[in-house]
Amino acid sequence: MKIATYNVNGVNGRLPVLLRWLGETMPDVACLQELKAPQEKFPEQAILDAGYEVIWHGQKSWNGVAILSRIGAIKEIRRVLPGDPEDVHSRYIEAVVNDVLIACLYLPNGNPAPGPKFDYKLSWFERLTTHAKQLLAQEIPVVLTGDFNVIPTPQDVYKPERWVDDALFRPETRAAFQKLTAQGWTDAIRKLYPEEKIYTYWDYFRDAFGRDAGLRIDHFLLSPQLETRLTAAGVDRQVRGWEKSSDHAPVWIELK
């Protein structure tokens, strides 16, 4: 079972890139973030024509998450992260596919930090951690995946000294990620590639992709029931070099 995550940075504007990637790599399940489309403007028919069932939670201008499957039904569980009825951001969607619970998330960026946006990031993170603990308690196969907007360690960023004041790399952010993983989640990429330089995002500016000045902020966290089923993982970094591509590259894992 091949599961992928991809921050598309605008699903309609980058639809040709998305469809090409789906056609070339054929993940069984694909989680998308940053749709930047209201619910009614999601390109459902194009996704269906590509061979995928889909559920999505859109939002005008920004945010938005979706889960695609080409291996059968998507049983939606929820499309809001619990814990704050006032939060209207479309950043979370959760479903069961092929007996695996998949949570697709788009964690807040949090910049500028400190400030209200950073406070929102940390509070959202706390809600995610609370919910993740409840998911683990079910003792079922769970995948938490998406754009976490977290650089976990200095190993995960080009020139970390330039990021010390950024919301993605501040100590509070890294501590929150560590608190989450300490519940018993496995960082799939680092499980298989503990020492390698691996990035998933390259800024559009200053030829960041050409210089390989990237970050690793798109993650797969696996529940204990899936750790031993992990057989492969990687980043489709070639997609980042395609014309009119997202500033993120797709990330994927394979489970036996």
UniProtKB/TrEMBL annotation:
<keyword id="KW-0378">Hydrolase</keyword>
<comment type="similarity">
    <text>Belongs to the DNA repair enzymes AP/ExoA family.</text>
</comment>
<dbReference type="InterPro" id="IPR036691">
    <property type="entry name" value="Endo/exonu/phosph_ase_sf"/>
</dbReference>
<dbReference type="InterPro" id="IPR037493">
    <property type="entry name" value="ExoIII-like"/>
</dbReference>
<feature type="domain" description="Endonuclease/exonuclease/phosphatase">
    <location>
        <begin position="4"/>
        <end position="248"/>
    </location>
</feature>
<dbReference type="Pfam" id="PF03372">
    <property type="entry name" value="Exo_endo_phos"/>
</dbReference>
<dbReference type="GO" id="GO:0008311">
    <property type="term" value="F:double-stranded DNA 3'-5' DNA exonuclease activity"/>
</dbReference>
<keyword id="KW-0460">Magnesium</keyword>
<keyword id="KW-0479">Metal-binding</keyword>
<protein>
    <submittedName>
        <fullName>Exodeoxyribonuclease III</fullName>
        <ecNumber>3.1.11.2</ecNumber>
    </submittedName>
</protein>
<dbReference type="InterPro" id="IPR005135">
    <property type="entry name" value="Endo/exonuclease/phosphatase"/>
</dbReference>
<dbReference type="InterPro" id="IPR004808">
    <property type="entry name" value="AP_endonuc_1"/>
</dbReference>
